[in-house]
Design brief:
Helix content is 20%, strand content 30%. The chain contains 15 helices and 47 strands. It is globular, with a radius of gyration of 29 Å. It binds alpha-L-rhamnopyranose. The site of alpha-L-rhamnopyranose (RAM) has 9 residues, from loops. One of its GO terms (biological process) is carbohydrate metabolic process. One of its GO terms (molecular function) is alpha-L-rhamnosidase activity.
Length: 911
């Protein structure tokens, strides 16, 4: 479903050319919802988009009505909340402030806005469903089977899927029915044989001892009529741990289980709740013989349970469901969207050799394939997945490590059979198909791209085709690694949400995907994985227990919160996490600060920095750790400043002073210990110097010298290349741009020789590699689909090349300052902010600069127009000096700064 599921258009009453769109429902953990179902926070966040053709539209006030019925709302009665006319510019984060909401109720709302150009009519109504607010709302028990059956392979750790069913009767006519389900590890819900919802691999991954996400569905239409059958299939997911050979490391939760309730309201107002209990029956003897995230799924179609989720199925051979232990965590409505099949891919080629087919989708991605096949009963088709091929055309699978990445389908025979797995996914471009009866053509094997349902909110094209290609690779890499959590890679036996991979990357991703809810949920995963003493792990949820106490990985917690606040303007994100962040900062300081004020603990150094020559990586393990206290101290300093800034927003002035003081002291200690007066830091690596520069650790007097060093390393030592690993790459493009050397940043971004993003593409990458030398390094740690090396590249694309940057309140104030770089003549980018679309489209010609921009209502922008000193600037062919609404703020050399309000503008300047 579209992100604007409830968008509607209402004409503004005062200015007929203007329209209002919205409202949309917000929530603390939820910017925008796919479905207005199951919001379990007491004060959801409300927001709306204003649409208007006029320029310079600003909201001055709003009036919100929230009612318990559509009828009341239609009569303009806000019995739950009537905000009255409230003076405010806020249109994206108004917190519900009415009567306490009740579990499992639907509320209706609308908004009217007042603007400087007039007042809108009431918007059309929208609604949301309040979830289950109390633990007590779930006063029933979990069912499952705790133990192994003949259908399971206990030794290998494979379970067959668990099927549960129950027939029910609706005693009267159903007015409304809502299903609330927690099915762990993964579930599919059926009513009368129909799958409920189009989500896959649901629910979202969490540490189930901390919190369990429930999903909510409106099942009213499915429960019309008297008799119905409910069915639930359970897969392992991560509940029954994917790998159990290292119990000290991998978290295991137990056997699959489910708790569900359907709350029914009849037309006469009476209510009934249907729930899981031991009158349900279950079996493990279904067609999904085994399912495992890393290894794949085995499906024997001969074992299909025809009609198991329909009325009248003979379940006498099924067992009584048993009551089992609850997972332990809090029950929470899932506000980030589930995964979905987001796109289908057709093979670009199919070749066959020795009875096996090799399918090439032309694109590395994650998900699975859907197959159509016809043949004799018992025929076994084996699908094996890989990211690339060996020279002899066979699959290259060494880099999958222990992940078997193999699906098996056994035919039942007869008519054409269509199949796709349910409880696994793979990261791949190639599939080897063995045992397929008959000819396999492109129509019979469709690739299915699976990721968390999010809209793509950004686009970027330019006159440089390599920049465009990198953007495309990035999109595929990022999408592939959204798996309920931001995983590091989708193919090998890892797939963990490593914090360190994302500080700059997550920021850049936010320009491409509507991922606020996704990252808001991840922040909770991180917070909940914190130990009582303050320690934060490198991987969260901590499916792997990696509490290594370094700065760089856990530090991402603060950096992603900062990013979310900047992009969405929601201060509640900071307030929610502030105590945990502070605790961690104190913990690190207490344990790891030495007498000289240096944070001595670091685990990974500048992880995966490129070996000086491509050959050096050959045959060697890539994951050499080079712990470096300079990195940990620089990060601690940066995070002290971030915390001080958070205090500004949260109003904690005492803490703020302490963080600021500590930062001043640490800066001195850092310089004393690591600065070499000849102008560099530590061992004079690019990353060390960049951190000191970007974090503002360097003294003003030394800045120029340091800048000289940075440039010398790139230009002379590296012959125009970067030499940064995971840490340095997160900041490098912004550092160079701030230094006034966006030309050098551009050089790095458009290189095709090693090490560079272009080099990856020249060597066949269709996503982003884990390693700069991914084509020669050892396969042990060499994923071809990681996002970490994107660093801050996409931030630079949108903020510096296109010039779309938020200055306050999640783009309510925008700074538009594109960098003009020799060789780059054109950029066109769009970004869908919470206020509406922001576009920047510029073309540089010999002596002119043309720039079309648009910013949405209720926002303002400061533009930096490149223009020859003293030359005239036109907007829509009119000199801007003749336009009283165009405010010139300053003229500084070849840049003219102008303030504008919402609307579309066409500027032309002389260069
Ligand atoms: C690897 C992953 C991940 C990285 C860690 C330290 O296993 O590639 O991206 O963060 O190591």
């Amino acid at each position: 479903m579209n992100r604007w599921w409830c968008v509607f258009i209402v004409w503004l009453s005062v200015v007929p050319a203007a329209v209002i769109a919205g409202p949309d429902v917000f929530d603390l953990r939820c910017e925008l919802l796919t479905e207005p179902l199951g919001i379990d926070v007491p004060q959801p966040r409300l927001g709306w988009k204003i649409k208007a053709e006029e320029r310079g539209v600003l909201q001055t006030a709003y009036h919100i009505l929230v009612a318990s019925s559509p009828e009341k709302l239609a009569q303009d009665i806000g019995d739950l909340w009537d905000s009255g006319k409230t003076e405010s510019h806020n249109s994206i984060a108004v917190y519900y402030d009415g009567k306490a909401l009740k579990s499992d109720t639907k509320v209706f709302w609308k908004v009217k806005v007042y603007t400087n150009v007039g007042e809108s009519a009431w918007s059309a109504p929208a609604s949301w469903r309040v979830g289950l607010l109390y633990y007590k709302d779930w006063n029933r028990r979990w069912i499952g089977f705790d133990g192994y059956f003949n259908s399971d392979d206990e030794e290998a750790g494979y379970l067959s899927a668990r099927y549960f069913r129950k027939e029910i009767s609706m005693t009267k006519e159903v007015k409304e029915a809502t299903a609330y389900i927690m099915g762990l590890g993964l579930y599919e819900l059926y009513i009368d044989g129909n799958k409920v919802g189009d989500q896959v691999l649901a629910p979202g991954l969490t540490d189930y001892t901390k919190n369990v996400k429930y999903n909510v569905f409106d099942v009213t239409d499915l429960l019309k009529g008297n008799k119905h059958a409910l069915g639930v299939v359970l897969g392992n997911g991560r509940y029954y741990a994917v790998r159990q050979e290292k119990p000290y490391k991998v978290k295991n939760f137990g056997f699959p289980k489910v708790q569900m309730q359907i709350r029914v309201t009849y037309t006469d107002g009476s209510k009934q709740t249907i729930h899981t209990d031991d009158t349900w029956k279950g079996t493990t003897e279904g067609p999904i013989i085994s399912n495992n995230e890393y290894d794949g799924e085995i499906y024997d179609a001969r074992k299909e349970l025809q009609g198991w989720a329909t009325v009248g199925y003979d379940d006498r051979a099924w067992k009584k469901a048993t009551y089992v232990q609850e997972p332990g965590g809090n029950y929470e409505a899932q506000l980030n969207r589930n995964m979905k099949v987001m796109q289908d891919l057709q093979p670009v080629s199919i070749t066959s050799k020795g009875g096996k087919y090799i399918i090439d989708y032309g694109q590395n991605f994650s998900g699975w394939v859907k197959m159509r096949v016809q043949g004799e009963s018992g025929t076994k088709v084996t699908l094996r997945f890989a990211e690339s091929l060996n020279e002899d055309g066979t699959l290259f699978r060494d880099n999958l490590r222990a992940a078997k990445a193999t699906d098996v389908y056994i035919l039942k025979g007869g008519a054409v059979e269509e199949w796709e797995p349910r409880f696994t996914y793979h990261g791949f471009r190639y599939v080897e198909v063995e045992g397929y009866p008959g000819d396999l053509d492109v129509e019979k094997i469709t690739g299915r791209l699976v990721y968390d349902e999010m809209e793509t909110v950004g686009s970027f094209t330019s006159s440089n085709t390599l920049l465009n290609q990198i953007h495309k690779n990035a999109w595929w890499g990022i999408a592939s690694n959204y798996k309920g959590i931001p995983v590091d890679c989708p193919q090998r036996n890892e797939r963990q949400a490593w914090l360190g991979d994302r500080p700059g990357s997550a920021y850049g991703e936010n320009f491409l995907f509507d991922n606020a809810n996704f990252y808001i949920k991840w922040l909770d995963d991180i917070r909940l994985s914190q130990k009582e003493d303050g320690a934060i792990p490198d991987v969260a949820p901590a499916f792997w227990r990696y509490y290594s106490d370094n700065m760089t990985w856990p530090g991402t917690y603060l950096i992603v919160a900062d990013m979310l606040y900047q992009q969405t303007g929601d201060v509640r994100i900071l307030k929610r996490h502030y105590p945990a962040m502070k605790k961690w900062m104190q913990y690190m300081r207490a344990l790891y600060m030495d007498g000289d004020g240096i944070i001595i603990k670091d685990s990974y150094g500048d992880w995966c920095a490129p070996p000086a020559t491509i050959e050096e990586g050959r045959g060697k393990s890539a994951d050499v750790k080079r712990p470096n206290p300079l990195i940990s101290t620089a990060y601690y300093y940066h995070l002290l400043e971030v915390m001080a800034r958070f205090c500004e927003y949260t109003g904690d002035s005492i803490d703020r002073a302490e963080f600021e003081e500590a930062a001043v002291k640490m800066r001195e200690d850092f310089n004393r210990r690591f600065y070499n007066p000849s102008g560099y830091y530590g061992n004079n690596t690019l990353t060390e110097n960049i951190l000191a520069m970007y974090f503002g650790l360097v003294e003003d007097s030394e800045k120029e010298k340091l800048a000289g060093r940075i440039i010398a390393i790139i230009e002379k030592e590296n012959n125009g290349h970067l030499s940064t690993g995971l840490v340095g790459t997160q900041w490098i493009m912004r550092t160079l741009t701030d230094m006034g050397r966006s030309d050098l940043a551009y050089k790095l971004a458009t290189n095709t020789s090693y090490p560079s993003w272009g080099y990856m593409i020249e060597h066949g990458a269709t996503t982003i590699w884990e390693l700069w030398n991914g084509n020669t390094a050892h396969p042990r740690m060499n994923s071809q689909n990681h996002v970490m090396m994107l660093g801050d590249l996409l931030v630079w694309y949108y903020e510096n090349l296109a010039g779309i940057k938020s200055a306050a309140n999640g783009f309510q104030r925008i700074v538009m300052q594109p960098e003009l770089i020799e060789g780059l003549d054109h950029v066109a980018a769009r970004y869908q902010s919470l206020y509406g679309e922001i576009t920047s489209n510029w073309t540089k010609r010999k002596s002119t600069f043309e720039w079309t921009i648009s910013i949405p209502p209720n926002t303002r922008a400061e533009l930096y127009l490149p223009a020859r000193k003293g030359s005239s600037i036109t907007e829509s062919n009119r000199n801007i000096k003749d336009n009283s609404r165009m405010q010139i703020l300053s003229e500084d050399g070849d840049k003219v700064k102008i303030a504008i309000g919402s609307g579309t503008y066409q500027f032309k300047t002389k260069l």
